[in-house]
Amino acid sequence: MGGREGSSASYKTFSEMANNGRGGFRATIFIYILTSLENMGFIANMVSLFTYFLTVMFFNLAGAANTLTNFMGATFLLSLVGGFISDTFLSRLNTCLIFGTIELLGLMLMTIQAYSKKLHPTFCGIDKTSCVKGGTAAMLYVSLTLYALGSGGVRGALPALGADQFNQNDPSEAEALSTFFNWVILSATVGASVGVTVIVWVSSEVAWYWGFFICLVTAFIGFVVLACGRRFYRIQPRGQSPIIRVLQVTVVAFKNRKLTAPEKPDELHESNDKETDFPESKLVHTDQFRCLDKAAILGKNSAPRPWAVCTVTQVEEVKILTRMLPILFSTIIMNTCLAQLQTFSIRQGNEMDRLLGSFEVPASSIPVIPLVFMSILIPIYEFVFVPFARKITGHPAGITQLQRVGIGLVLSAISMAVAGFVEVKRRNHFLKTPPVKISLFWLSLQYGIFGIADMFTLVGLLEFFYKEAPKGMRSLSTSFTWVSLSFGYFLSSIFVDLINAVTKRIAPSKQGWLHGLDINHNNLNLFYYFLAILSCINFVNYLYWASWYRYKTELPDMELKPKAFISASPVFKKESTPENHGATTNGSSASADHTENGAKLLKPSL
């Protein structure tokens, strides 16, 4: 216990001193500020652009929903660009500042178009998907493209920049890393809460261009603050291009496909410290995807050369990325559900009683409900649940990241089922004679449940992809969280079109579930039920892959740690299993258990 208390007493450890006082929570303050200010505008736009497309750009219901989900999907997919660049060419800080400038340019063009009536389209009827054309369309799509590229690029580099301020090899900082991801989501939540109330109200009740202008100003201040913290950051060295390293393993393994991989892993090629970008992070050999081991076969009397042989660590990096893919794909359906809360649920709100006393609440401000839930629950999770769970599991974060994601997937399925029931109630009351509008706050049920789900899943994925990634691929790997969001939004667009096309043929009314502009005469509830059932099936799929996943294990480099750190009591005790023995690389025994940082993986059973 003494070792635990000593390690928890202060986050200023050996690694901070080795970095001349850089890093730690002092450095992340600047990141929290940017996250809050940038998300203030981004989330406000995410929930209000649907209404903007409907009422200003004259899209129909499906066209507005698909345009928004395509924009959001592109934004998060482009995070891969920011992640790749920050791992390969630029520092993560410079990547954030460059893409931040692009984001500001996009917001500036959106503000100009919203202000100038000459850049607005004229109404052309409800039968057309969109009324924008010519120069108006060019202005709209160029501004959205720049906004998506800039915002996506920032998201690809910023989480990794913050996480770099903590050393995973230090027990106290290992705990602090989990705390960082909780606080960065809390920062985003607080900023978003202001955005979906203040900025959304300004956009809908005052003028759209004022809303976009406020987003522009807050983002600009955020990036200035980020730049001011430059001297406090730990800047990680850049390594070889992640794509090149993956291609090398793939090509060499294919060239050696007819060779027989040795039974003993220590017969495979591994580099010495002088040959690697990150000498402290050699990875232990694992038995999954043995076909890739052939890339590490070094012929007799042969000298190691790039594209001729790869190291065990390089092969294991590719294995890690491969193992991550099923986890990534298993979270896409949840993000498809999220897209509905930013499109069709906003439309529901417009058909409900939005009065709070004498104040009329903008329908786009309803997402403040899950944001308030998250703002309250994240500190409770951090200060109450994590210490309690840590005593039981010995895990620095209380529970594993995959368990955390699993909880979120279950809650997202429940949220969609509740959304369906609420829509039935809303529509039945509206179709009475005379029509009755139920309170807008009925939507708080689906939003609140999904907000809790998002708290578990988003933080879990960010920490999972960062901690599991090879050191030279952490920005790119962290971007997988946003890629899951991207695919979820794109899949939402596909589902909307597909469901409409199929149900139009089989429904007695010959109308699709989501046809036209009037949701009072379509079947949005059935679409919600469809997503709920699909989410349940997806959760079973996730359970399989989460149980199959094997966390990475790094070979210890004792020379990098001070004597006091080496002798400190461990934060958790490794459990001896048959798998723990016999996993060797170049004669060095190491644990190849199914654990994350030595803590046993518990299946996400709920």
Give the topology.
Layout: H1 2-9, H2 14-18, H3 24-55, H4 61-77, H5 79-88, H6 92-115, H7 134-163, H8 171-206, H9 208-228, H10 242-255, H11 312-330, H12 332-341, H13 344-350, E1 355-356, E2 359-360, H14 368-393, H15 401-430, H16 444-468, H17 474-506, H18 524-548, H19 563-566, E3 584-585, E4 588-589, E5 595-596, E6 599-600
Antiparallel strand pairs: 1-2, 3-4, 5-6
Report on this structure:
The chain is mainly alpha-helical. Helices cover 62% and strands 2% of the residues. The chain contains 19 helices and 6 strands. Strands 1-2 form a two-stranded antiparallel ribbon. Strands 3-4 form a two-stranded antiparallel ribbon. A two-stranded antiparallel ribbon has the order 5-6.
Tally of alpha and pi helices: 19
As laid out across the biggest beta sheet, the strand order is 1-2
N-to-C order of helices and strands: HHHHHHHHHHHHHEEHHHHHHEEEE
- Helix percent band: 55-70%
Name the average pLDDT: 78
- Large-scale geometry: globular
The radius of gyration computed from the alpha-carbon positions, rounded to a whole number of angstroms, is: 25 Å
Beta-strand percentage range: under 5%
Q: What separation lies between the terminal Cα atoms? A: 31 Å
Low-confidence stretches: 1-18, 557-606
What's the count of strands? 6
Structural class: mainly alpha
Tell me about the biggest sheet?
Answer: 2 strands, antiparallel
